[in-house]
Design goal:
Structural class: alpha+beta
Number of strands: 5
Strand content: 15-25%
Order of helices and strands: HHHEEEEE
Helix content: 10-25%
Radius of gyration: 15 Å
Bound molecules: zinc ion
Length: about 140
């Protein structure tokens, strides 16, 4: 069954044109921890023409009872997708799903890329691996 195609060249040139990696500590932690701890998911990103540096948006959510951070990262892939919400099999703890630009799912979709394209959503729980830590937020 055909589910998606990848135009790696166009995905990579899009990344060069539009993506500036965020420099906050949470995003730095994501970029450092993910390739180390989820090598299979990281290899999958590379197969799409992506890397941890090329996320459109990275959202983080610390859980109260652990040191881990829940990350949701959105990427943009040039290519066609026939199955909205397609779940790409990853042999580690990452969850990777593909969404059409027209999806009803609340995905980050602010791109300037030309069609056809789709959104890759990566969800993963990662420990803190950097030496510096963000200031605690007082509530
Ligand atoms: Zn950031």
């Amino acid at each position: 069954m055909f589910a998606y195609s990848i135009n790696r060249g166009r995905t990579k040139s899009y990344k060069t044109l539009y993506n500036e990696p965020c420099e906050c500590l949470y995003c730095q932690n994501f970029r450092t921890a993910y390739p180390k701890l989820c090598p299979h998911g990281n290899a999958l990103l590379e197969r799409f023409g992506l890397s941890v540096d090329s996320a459109l948006e990275v959202a983080e959510d610390g859980s109260e009872n652990s040191e881990d951070v829940n990350y949701t990262a959105y990427f943009c892939v040039a290519g066609t997708l026939t199955a909205d919400g397609y779940n790409v099999v990853v042999r580690d703890t990452s969850d990777i799903r593909l969404f059409k630009p027209s999806t009803r799912e609340a995905v980050y979709n602010n791109t300037d890329i030309e069609e056809p394209y789709y959104i890759l959503r990566l969800e993963v729980n990662l420990p803190w691996v950097l030496e510096s830590r963000p200031e605690p937020i007082n509530q």
